[in-house]
Every structure is written in C-alpha cells, then in structure tokens.
C-alpha cells in the first residue's frame, strides 16, 4: 500500500491514524502506518512534552505526527475564559442543570476539576503546543479546523515538517492549498468529529481535483481493507482513520461502559450534532445529543461557547458513566467496530482486506 | 467490468442506470450497460405500453429493466384521491398558495392538468404496470420503496425476471432478502431521491455482508470511473447510477432552466428534504425546499399526503420555470455534472475512468 506520499514519509502503508492516545499512535507507527497524536486535550505544554517523550521512545525512530487545533480563535483570543463564560445565556446554563438532574448525574467530588478546557482551542495554546512539537522529530503537523497561519506553515517547511489540514468541501480545500498546506485530508459526512455534509465518495475526488497535485488523504467511513481500497481508488494518496482505534486494546477511554456502547452501536447510531462544540460533529447519538438537537430546547450555542458550557457536564457524565448520556465523537464506521483488538491486529486485518479488495477489483476488470 | 451478475444478465458492463426517460434507458443498454426505466410517472398502462414498445424496439434485443413503486400503500389503497385530499390540513394548503404567490407563480392554463398524480404510488397502479411489464422481455424489476409482495416476486421468478429492491440500511436489506428478492441496491445518503442517513462508503459493505451471497449494487455518489471502482471495491457486483443521466442529451427534463441549474450546481447544493413526497429525498436545494424545511413553517406532511399536496404547485413551478423554486431529485454527484453529453459519451468516460482507477490501485498495491 505505497503511494508517493507514503514513500516520502518512509512508511510501509499509506495508513494514517488520528488518535488522542499516545499508545495507539505509537502502535500504529510501529505497525507500519503513521500515528498522529491529537493534542487538543493537552492544556499544559508539560503534559504534551511528557507524552511526546513517551511516543518518541516507543516508535523506534519511525515517523509520527501531531494534530493541533487552531480555529479562527482570534475572536476569543486575548480574552479570558471568565469573559467568555459571561457570554453564556442563563437559559442554557439552566438547561444543562435540568438535563443532568433529570438523569440523576452526581456532582464532581470537591476539588476534582472538569477535564476539558476551552484553552486547548485557543490559538495561544495551540502555539505553545507547536513550540513543544518542534522540539521533537514530528514529521507531520495536522490542523483539524481551518488553515494554519502562514508563519506556522513556513516554520514547519523550514524544518522539513509536512503540514496537513482537514476539509469538508472543495472550497475549504482550495483555501488550505492557497495557504501553502502540503496535504489535504478530505473528511466526508460519515466521519466522526467535525464534518460537513458531502459524503466521502463524492468529496475525495472533488478535493483531489481541486488541489492537484497536492496529495489528499481520504477520511470518513473507512474501517476495513475494502474501504481503504475504495478511498485510494477515489484518488487519495492514503487514508486517515480515527474512529476505528477507539476500541483497540491500546485506547484508554476511561470508561468500560463507553467501550461497550461503541462495540454495540450500529452505523445508524451516530448523529451529526452541535451538542459537543457548537459546530456539527458526528458522535454517538445519546439522550444528551437528543436534548440539544430538540427543536423545543434552547439549541446549542456557537463555538466556543457550547464547549465551555458543557465541559463540566461531560466530565460528570463520563466519570459516573451515566448510560443514557454517555457518548463520544465517532463515525458511522462504529457499526463495524464489534470487538476489542490490538492496533497490530487491526492493521493486519486492514492490509489483508486491502489485498483481497484489489484481487476482487482485478477479477472484475478482467486482469486476474 | 464483469461480475457474476453482469454475466448472468449478459451485459458487457456491470453498470445499471435508473432513469425516467426511455431514450436514456435505451441508450445505456445499447452502450453496454443496463437501462432501468422508472415507471412512477406513468398514470395509464397504455402510456407505459407505448414507451416499452419504443424501448424494446431501440435496445436491439439487449436487456433492460423497469422500476415500479410499491410503497406500503395498503393504508391508502382502496380509497380514492378525493378521500386522501380531504386529509390535508387547510394550513398546509394555505402555505402552498402563499409560497407560490410570494414567487409570482402563475396558475396553469384552463384545462391543463397537473402532471403528477398520487396514483403512481398506489399498489393497484403498480400492479397494472407489472401486468404490462410482464408482456415485455423485461429482465429486471426494481422496487424503489419497500419489498415487492411475495406473489410479485414469485411471478417474476416464474418468468426468469430478476427482482431488485433499494435499501438504505442493513435491516431493510435483510427484510428484502427474507422476502426473496434477487438483488439489493444499497443506496447511500449522498444519492438522489429517497435516501437514508448511512453513506455509501459504510452502507455497501454492511449490506453486502448482511445479505450474502445475494448480489448488491452500489448506489449514491457514483458518477465517475473512480467512483465505480470504489463501489466495486466495497463488495458490490455492479453500480446503480441515477443522477448522472439527467444532463445527458437523451434526457428530456422539459426545462432548459432546470438543465442549466443542474449543470451549475455544486455537490453542496442538494438537500435531503421531505418537501417532495413526505419522506426524506435528496434534491436540489431551492427556495421551495427551504420553505418546507423552515422550522417556522408548517413542515411537510407524511407520504402520500405531501406528494398530493404539492403536485399542482410543482407542475406550475416547472411549466413557468420559476427559477428560485425550480428543482429536481438529484444526488451530491450533481457537482460533477458540468456538461451535456450523450449517454454513450458518458459510458465511454466511465469505463475509461474505471480502467485508470484500476491501474492506479494496482500501482499502489505494487502489482503494476
């Protein structure tokens, strides 16, 4: 499974994996793919440094990447969380309280802070993460929302670090290309997390044509070897998988109940909802997303207010594993995630399945 | 592009095309694919007979199919249109009137009837269409909504006619298989017309596994050779294309303005709306769909009431080519429909593009 891009990066398989778990990223890189660690959850540079130390020590010199979030955060940058907090309407705060009360969600113990902070979404934090990243032999810097600033792209290029950005439309992809990005991740409607409305089947060739000759990675709905073959047939130079790793043995969701929910979910059990961050993001459908998507409710606030509003609530739901409300970003491929396996076992399955799909397409084309 | 199914049908390409236009169906069959004529618009058996006579005379003995609609129509069957009309709330009638007035849509001339009738959606009509169909060497009977009744499947089987049914989920596909259907068309979210929420990338392998060893056709988002390769890599035994034919020279949309709108539309210019029939169907996004999807409006009625309610309005919009309201069912692939070409030219492009995609995947797999 070799493309120009995989050769450039020196990896055996053009198989990129986004994950918040260093152990998953390391295992994927060791298995011949390319692990990309999501940095959004790191609120302190020291925590990131600690995990990059570990990752670097466990990838045996093979390449890995880092995904930072730099949204158009200028609007909220330079003002503190307290000032942003003040923008949240009382009606929305009451709705959070009422929804938690309805499901008997306990308070956090005294002194235990909510795990999630808006700070990870702010440019100043993303920049401090970048400063850390450049101390490590990171080979790819990905950006989940928007194009990275020009100086970041230039800094990466000077150090031989490739930059990638996610796009849900050809228009966004062209904007990334104009900004000087090296790789566009074409992320379809069926993907987990922030997505647009164009499905992977339509989006990948459209973006590949729009930004040619830049390499494109296919993302969304990919969790088997045949789906990898499909993504590559669509013109991608690799595939970008996120959801599939959530049920690997190396992942640490901090909740057995959530893992069980993922293993039991079908492809129809996700929803594209603004409940999590204020922008449409695909996730498990739960009583929590239903409440925010209810036309009779107050509806989600825009980013970044929604994320700030629900941060503590999500911590409580997860800590106490409150079943009806417990969810996570995940794509429609969740329907095929039916057992817990090691990253290596998953990669073996993917590469075997890819070869079988190629056999099949060659038989159909009369070349077998 | 040969699969077990295409060999069974004796066609050079496993390329199925759904179309309401006999000229398109005939041209596709002549070009080596398999034309499937949509019968929903025929309100009289004689009209259908006339077009099947023509189709039969223009396919040179090569195989073609017919698509009838047999929804769970028992609920409204046996009662007349007048009784169904009476179920439509006055508020909804007023909303139609107001929306048309807002856009200055003229009345139909005296004596000119609305083209669309609910009757095409009723089982008694579908059955009279089937009686006609069995007088012709139709090789495939497809059913767009639900499974055909057991006696229809048995009658088809007795005559060596294959049956196919569309499915938007593995559950629906299994229901079709249990009913004794021969082929399942896995139609993804990005498709034109009635669709579910699961994207083609995820849906095709899920359904192929659910109904194996029944053959599955991939539908939704397919309009190029690379998308055909992707659909086949996902485990389909053929592809089912509908939207792509709308801008062929053989299609007759009765509106140049609509053709121009299709040629100009991007992949993001469709919406999955209940405005047309009461069930979610992907179509061009227009001021008409916006009005029905507006949370402050009355919202669409359930099938079959919505179709009956809006039939005359749609005839008026189309007759007078009222630009902001003018639409049609079409999939996200509309973004790649940028020129008018003959069906033969389209098929040539598809087969060439397929071969190139196979070359590409073989290079990636190290087999070239």
UniProtKB/TrEMBL annotation, chains A, B:
Swiss-Prot/TrEMBL keywords: Flavoprotein, FMN, Monooxygenase, Oxidoreductase
CDD domains tied to this protein: NPD_like
A GO term for molecular function: monooxygenase activity
EC numbers on record: 1.13.12.-
InterPro entries listed in its UniProt record: Aldolase_TIM, NMO
Domain of life according to the entry: Bacteria
Pfam families: NMO
The name this protein goes by in its record: Nitronate monooxygenase
Organism for this UniProt entry: Streptomyces toxytricini
């Amino acid at each position: 499974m070799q493309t120009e891009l995989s050769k450039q990066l020196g990896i055996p398989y053009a198989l990129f994996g986004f994950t918040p778990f260093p152990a998953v990223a390391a295992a994927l890189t060791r298995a011949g793919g390319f692990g990309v660690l999501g940095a959004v959850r790191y609120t302190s540079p020291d925590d990131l440094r600690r995990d990059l130390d570990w990752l670097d020590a466990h990838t045996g010199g093979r390449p890995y990447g880092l995904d930072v979030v730099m949204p158009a955060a200028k609007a909220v940058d330079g003002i503190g969380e307290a000032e942003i907090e003040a923008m949240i309407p009382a009606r929305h705060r009451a709705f959070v309280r009422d929804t938690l009360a309805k499901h008997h969600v306990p308070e956090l113990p005294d002194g235990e802070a909510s795990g999630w902070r808006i700070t990870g979404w702010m440019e100043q934090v993303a920049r401090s993460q970048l400063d850390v990243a450049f101390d490590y032999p990171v080979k790819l810097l990905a950006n989940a929302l928007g194009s990275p600033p020009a100086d970041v792209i230039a800094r990466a290029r000077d150090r031989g670090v490739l930059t990638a950005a996610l796009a849900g439309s050809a228009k966004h992809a062209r904007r990334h290309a104009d900004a000087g990005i090296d790789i566009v991740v074409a992320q379809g409607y069926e993907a987990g997390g922030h997505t647009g409305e164009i499905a992977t089947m339509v989006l990948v060739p459209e973006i590949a044509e729009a930004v040619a000759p830049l390499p494109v990675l296919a993302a969304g709905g990919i969790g088997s070897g045949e789906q990898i073959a499909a993504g590559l047939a669509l013109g991608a130079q690799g595939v970008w998988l996120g959801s599939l790793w959530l049920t690997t043995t190396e992942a640490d969701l901090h909740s057995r109940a959530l893992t069980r929910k993922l293993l039991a979910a079908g492809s129809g059990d996700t929803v594209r909802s603004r409940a999590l961050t204020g922008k449409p993001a695909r996730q498990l459908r739960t009583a929590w997303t239903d409440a925010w998507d209810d036309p009779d409710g107050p509806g989600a606030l825009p980013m970044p207010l929604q994320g700030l509003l629900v941060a503590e609530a999500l911590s409580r739901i997860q800590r106490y594993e409150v079943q009806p409300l417990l969810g996570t970003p995940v794509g429609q491929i969740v329907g095929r995630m039916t057992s817990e396996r090691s990253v290596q076992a998953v990669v073996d399955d993917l590469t075997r399945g890819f070869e079988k799909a190629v056999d099949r397409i060659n038989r159909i084309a009369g070349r077998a």
